[in-house]
């Protein structure tokens, strides 16, 4: 084992502030950590194509995406965990009858099963990304999908959770839920990543703020919740830093001796 530290960092609400911008202090902290020989790895619910510019800006080529379903180390894919297509088709047909559209997602693109819907427009817009799903109701054919977005109001996902046991459902917006392979999580993706890295457990860190970060923050030695994190996320973490809008990454790394 060496003394290299591995730092997993969420994007929304952790790297990106409330304006979906990267604070200057965050860029400095990541650069300094890398300069010291530490490995900084993105761990996000986003698709790879949703943060290509961010990876380029921060010069990071390792990431756990789709909440652990698509894992890349040093530019090479090392783990994938696609959705079960037969169950997904059944869910999609069911959702269509309830006016709940879906968006199919692989590592390259995302496609909606209906031409347009206000729930899709409103929720995707909050991500402030250049991508918007075009229409292709058969995008699931002959390809692996790592996540699907189900668009419904809060509480309406309960019927799907009960019926479709091949999937986990994680709400990320008042109008949208992530549909993931059952048991898939950032934590699982991180463990796949760590099998390729020679690092001791006491040198593993993770920064996050959302419900999809809880397992990650619990399972690593040093889970760090952002000051803007939800109460239950802070309760799951070993450490709490400042808000993302108050240089949270920089102060967290400084406090923990990473930089």
Automatic annotation (TrEMBL):
Coiled coil: none annotated. GO terms for cellular component: cytosol. CDD domains: HAD_HPP (cd07517). One of its GO terms (molecular function) is phosphatase activity. Keywords: Hydrolase. PANTHER family: PHOSPHATASE YKRA-RELATED, PHOSPHOSERINE PHOSPHATASE. This is Cof-type HAD-IIB family hydrolase. It comes from Allobacillus salarius. The lineage of its organism: Bacteria, Bacillati, Bacillota, Bacilli, Bacillales.
